[in-house]
Amino acid sequence: MGIVKKLSFLKGVMNNSLKLCEFALTNVCTAKCHFCTIWKQKPKHIVNIDQAIKTITHLAHLGVRFITLTGGEPLLHPHFDKIISECTKRNITSSILNADARLFTQKRLDALKRSKVDLVCISIDHHTDKIASFSRTIPNILSHIQKAVTELKKRNITTMASTLICNYNHRTLDELFNKCTEIGFDIISVNYPEFSESPVYTLGGDAINLKKDEIINALRNVIKLKKKYNIINFNHSIYNIIDYLKNNKPKYMCLGGYRMLFIDWSFNAYPCMYLPYHLGNILELKKQELKKKMCNECNMSWYRDFSVYFQGIKSIKPVLSSIPFILSTKFSR
């Protein structure tokens, strides 16, 4: 993220206007994760490139300044680079989420560099190849991730390890984060396990069927491990999730559908990846329709984490604590 984008992002945080979005380009996926069934969905969808470009333009009009391209597997979209380039053109910070590191071919790596992506996020579930490979049903996955991170670094593209607290790792997060550091990731993010009620973003299964106390203990460990590793999740948000899991009323409710949106491969806009209903077609959605609604239905990390920063006086401390991290973090441009 260049200085212009950083300042734009900070301005959005400070003046309480920033909006963020996840845009699913396809439900096609070569990974077969044990906590996700998107890869089983039929029929298969790949978003029309012209409609996708119009969507990015419209999201910019709505005030969106950060977009994560997801799926399925967004690298399988034949024109993912054109979508990223449109984000760059609109001064929108872009990231792309990858579940199958085998897909980082030279052609795709060069396309990521050429389109000026800000951040590449690669999923990693365990510090041993045996369990990490089992989790995604991809043989030798850690070697593929290592190769991908090395090649991305050669192109000066910032990388983030996207980790999910699950049955495979909730007791060995230190080892997982250490492996992420050894591989060479610049940043680590932690996702919180959740069963989704969404008809499109289907999450569940034994892999994330943890007891609340197990998740809470893992989150407390994440807070301790932040002293050792470059973990992007802020303490205010983690403590907020702990309060949610303890059946307490959390200090910060979720602002999904107001500050954050999820766009599926049919161009439907959802408040988040969890809820079963959508708000309508994104290209028909008007700014005034993004109304502030407080929600406390789930612990979907991306949506709960960012919601902490847009709640008036209560958000002063989180906002101030995030500024040094935003300014010091090296993004790709």
Main attributes?
333 residues; alpha/beta; TIM Barrel; 11 helices; 8 strands; 37% helix; globular
Give the overall pLDDT as a whole number.
93
Task: Please give the share of residues in helix.
Answer: 25-40%
* Structural class label: alpha/beta
For the biggest sheet, the summary is: 8 strands, mixed
CATH fold node name: TIM Barrel
Distance between the termini: 5 Å
* Strand ordering within the main sheet: 6-5-4-3-2-1-7-8
- CATH A-level architecture: Alpha-Beta Barrel
Q: Rg from C-alpha positions?
A: 18 Å
CATH superfamily: Aldolase class I
Describe the protein in words.
This protein is of the alpha/beta class. β5, α7 (173-183) and β6 form a beta-alpha-beta unit. It is 37% helix and 12% strand. An eight-stranded mixed beta sheet has the order 6-5-4-3-2-1-7-8, sandwiched between helices. The protein has helices at residues 3-14, 49-62, 80-89, 106-115, 129-136, 141-154, 173-183, 212-225, 235-245, 301-307, 316-328; strands at 19-24, 64-70, 93-98, 119-123, 159-164, 187-191, 260-263, 269-270. The chain has a single domain (3-328), classed as TIM Barrel, CATH 3.20.20.70.
In a nutshell, what does this entry contain?
The protein has helices at 3-14, 49-62, 80-89, 106-115, 129-136, 141-154, 173-183, 212-225, 235-245, 301-307, 316-328, and strands spanning 19-24, 64-70, 93-98, 119-123, 159-164, 187-191, 260-263, 269-270. The chain is built from 11 helices and 8 strands.
